[in-house]
Amino acid sequence: MALLPEVKPYYGKLRLLIGGEWVDSESSIIQDTPNPATGEVIAQYPTATKQEARAAVEAAQKGFEALSKIALRERARMLFDMRQKFEEHFSDLTRVLTQDHGRTIKESIGSVRRVIENIESACSAAYGLVSRNEHLDNLANGIDMWLTWEPLGPFLIITPSNIPMHAWSSFVPYALAAGCSVVVSPSRQDPIAAEYIARVALEAGWPPGAINLVHGGREINNYILEQPEIQGLGFIGSSHAGWDLFKLCGQLGKNSSINGNGKNTVVIMPDVDVGKIVPFVRQGCFGMTGQRCLGSDNVVVIGDIYDEFKEKFVQDARNMKLGYGLDESTAMGPYCSRAGMEKVAAWVERSVGEGARIVQDGRILPPELKKGYFMGPTILENLHPDMNSAKEEAFGAVAGLIRADSLDQVIEWINTKTDLGHSACIMTESGKVARKFAREVNVGNVGINVGVPQPYAFFPLGSKRKSFFGGAKSRMASMRLFLDEKTVTARWV
């Protein structure tokens, strides 16, 4: 099948967005960004200097002051306009995301659709501010009292490589709805997607400095967070990096919403129709090449259906077509980076060293795929929940099969064998079993007969334990991140 056209074959040297202007960086650190499917360089991006990062913070402060003068109804209208701009640029955004990140075009379509849903949710959140205000007349003799919610100021938003657009939309539209400006620091693995989403957002007419973008890294991120104007942080990434940022926010006394890793499990109960649920499990384990926090590594099968499930699951995985995601028939694209692919391959080797057995080896590839960052779906068996490979996230298209005797046993494993609490799914025909699982499993996102328990935009991403640090979850719940309460007590009589 012919490929969909690339938006551009080469995007040149990317710029920084500071105060409403796209500016060339003066940094001497310039790096290439490749197309993960071909290995060809498609852009260059700079690592911002501290002076440029400081300029972005100052611009964000001016942007916050400008936003504070924009009426709530006008901010809401701009959000509605921004939603329309994303619809107008939908095709370009999906193809840029596929080219820059590596996911399939169908997955990019789903991701950009989630972005638009978050903007819609932020529109609702903006008008929801009105309903959150409370006014009590004559609370005491001649005294009235009311509560208002006020925006805090500029925020740093750090987005990861695996969901560069979706993560942006989990924070930025809500910050704007609240009246806060942002400095966005995207992953260095897919900077083109970060630039495109910012360009589309600016078309809605936000004031200069409301949205800023710098390409940096850990040192620049810490520097921005330390600036006195920055009120807090929205972050999606690894738990290790998130914990360091959480501690820094604590030292600085700043708000945070920090979303980290997961080690997720899908449980197969003996009452299921195996042929029906295999595609859901495949999507949960291998969708987006396994590079998502809501994907599953561990597949726990209870009862005597293990062999039937394994046979059909392996066959389904073998039928997945690998290739460039702009080919609409592609079922699985490359890894976002070579380093990510090599990390997953090393994870498989360690698992084998612990006693796991490979029943489907994704490292065996045809020659035409070896220029890109490809590794096919991999299935292991003979895993045990005490193995490191059953506790540590692979963050790739790998499924580890585990046998279990009972649901109580599996719930105990999920709750105690790892300190992560992102998500867990169960496949069952029993409402009683599903209810027990949802109530007792200690994770923030539960799926029942779905492979990916993705909350819609108007729900928070409810991660627990060391999968989340901070005081407010992302998406709709991030309004608590960007706003603070003020009470007014007045006597006029």
Descriptors:
39% helix; six-stranded mixed sheet; single chain; alpha/beta; 493 residues
Chain-wise SSE layout:
Layout: E1 16-18, E2 21-23, E3 30-34, E4 41-46, H1 50-67, H2 72-88, H3 90-101, H4 105-132, E5 134-140, E6 143-151, E7 155-158, H5 164-169, H6 172-178, E8 182-185, H7 191-202, E9 211-213, H8 218-226, E10 232-236, H9 239-252, E11 255-259, E12 265-268, H10 274-286, E13 298-302, H11 306-318, H12 338-354, E14 357-360, E15 378-381, E16 398-404, H13 407-416, E17 420-421, E18 423-427, H14 431-440, E19 445-448, E20 464-465, E21 468-470, H15 479-482, E22 483-491
Parallel strand pairs: 7-8, 7-10, 8-9, 10-11, 12-13, 12-18, 13-16, 15-16, 18-19
Antiparallel strand pairs: 1-2, 3-4, 5-6, 6-22, 11-21, 14-15, 17-20
Helix pairs in contact: 2-4, 2-7, 3-4, 3-7, 4-6, 10-11
Overview of this protein structure:
It is a single chain. The protein is α/β, with parallel strands linked by helices. It folds into two domains: 16-260 and 467-489, 3-Layer(aba) Sandwich (Aldehyde Dehydrogenase, Chain A, domain 1), CATH 3.40.605.10; 265-448, 3-Layer(aba) Sandwich (Aldehyde Dehydrogenase, Chain A, domain 2). Helices cover 39% and strands 21% of the residues. It has helices at residues 50-67, 72-88, 90-101, 105-132, 164-169, 172-178, 191-202, 218-226, 239-252, 274-286, 306-318, 338-354, 407-416, 431-440, 479-482; strands at residues 16-18, 21-23, 30-34, 41-46, 134-140, 143-151, 155-158, 182-185, 211-213, 232-236, 255-259, 265-268, 298-302, 357-360, 378-381, 398-404, 420-421, 423-427, 445-448, 464-465, 468-470, 483-491. Strands 14-15-16-13-12-18-19 form a seven-stranded mixed beta sheet, with helices on both faces. A six-stranded mixed beta sheet has the order 9-8-7-10-11-21, with helices on both faces. Strands 5-6-22 form a three-stranded antiparallel beta sheet. Strand 5 and strand 6 form a beta hairpin. Helix 2 (72-88) runs antiparallel to helix 4 (105-132). It is globular, with a radius of gyration of 23 Å. The mean pLDDT is 91.
